[in-house]
Amino acid sequence: MTEPTEPSRPDSGAIFRAFAALLSGDPPTWRRLIQEHVPTESGHCAAPLCGRPGYGTPDYVPHPCGARAVADAARELHR
Ligand SMILES: [Zn+2]
Question: How far is the CA of 13 from the centre of ligand 1 (A)?
Answer without folding.
Answer: 19
